[in-house]
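TASK: fixed-backbone design
INPUT:
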């Protein structure tokens, strides 16, 4: 349990740092994909289906916008994907069910 909490805190710190830096669209997409992978591996697709679904949806929007060279829209969608992945992780690790 302690390892999960530490892992979540490290992920949150890492993603919040990444969101503050001036990084490229492809780096945002990579970070969003990593966040989805971590959320999936922690069981968010089962325990936090809504949040995980939103994260996956925003990631798909980001990829679509990137393929259309809509850089700003892709970055915003990737940020939303990361935020929803973090919400899914938080809900999964705290066991919160509403």
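OUTPUT:
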């Amino acid at each position: 349990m302690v390892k999960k909490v530490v892992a979540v805190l490290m992920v949150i710190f890492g993603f919040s740092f990444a969101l503050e830096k001036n990084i490229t669209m492809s780096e945002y997409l990579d970070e969003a994909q990593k966040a989805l992978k971590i959320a999936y591996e922690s069981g968010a697709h089962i325990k936090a289906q809504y949040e995980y679904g939103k994260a996956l949806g925003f990631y798909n929007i980001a990829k679509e916008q990137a393929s259309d060279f809509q850089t700003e829209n892709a970055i915003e969608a990737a940020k939303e994907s990361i935020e929803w992945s973090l919400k899914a992780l938080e809900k999964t690790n705290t066991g919160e069910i509403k």
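COMMENT: The first helix runs from residue 2 to 20.
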